[in-house]
């Protein structure tokens, strides 16, 4: 829960306690209900976040930075997508080059989400998909690579500069 939501909910809850204590016990419950509704409906997104909201199972909207509200029973936030640049390190394990030389390659990829709606709704786990696509692409590139020729090229280039 963000600080704004917490402060508003606490203010209405405290007002309910004060009114119940000093004015009438029967006037306090509406303030508690409002405090609960505020806690469930008021949302604040940071600059780098996108909230994907479904209303009764159908896409309602994708909300960006700032203050917004949802209808607690009808709306649900199904995903909070971080749009900052992410890094994922992975090991391609052992792959074979075109001339069947086994190589081990470690890699790191930098990525970020362009479309929060598709990341949340079009694929089950977009982070895992990114990892698997990167590993597969790396294996393909290693498979195209000819290790014998590269070794000869690197020796000849060392001689040229030595």
Q: Helical content, roughly? A: 40-55%
Sequence of secondary-structure elements = HHEEEEEEEHHH
Number of strands: 7
What is the makeup of the main sheet?
3 strands, antiparallel
Q: Mean pLDDT, as a whole number?
A: 85
- What is the 3D shape? elongated
- The main sheet orders its strands as 3-2-5
Low-confidence stretches: 156-162
Count of separate DSSP helical elements: 5
Labels describing this entry:
162 residues, Tetrahydropterin Synthase, Chain A, 2 domains, three-stranded antiparallel beta sheet, 31% strand, disordered C terminus
Summarize the entry for a quick read:
With 162 residues, the chain is α+β, with helices and mostly antiparallel strands. Helix content is 46%, strand content 31%. Strand 2 and strand 3 form a beta hairpin.
Describe this structure in words.
By secondary structure, the protein is of the alpha+beta class. The protein folds into two domains: 3-82, no CATH class; 86-161, 2-Layer Sandwich (Tetrahydropterin Synthase, Chain A). Helix content is 46%, strand content 31%. The protein contains five helices and seven strands, in the order ααβββββββααα. The protein has a three-stranded antiparallel β-sheet. A two-stranded antiparallel sheet has the order 1-4.
Helix-strand blueprint:
Elements: H1 3-22, H2 28-41, E1 42-45, E2 49-55, E3 58-63, E4 66-69, E5 75-82, E6 86-96, E7 102-111, H3 116-121, H4 126-144, H5 147-161
Antiparallel strand pairs: 1-4, 2-3, 2-5, 6-7
Helix pairs in contact: 1-2
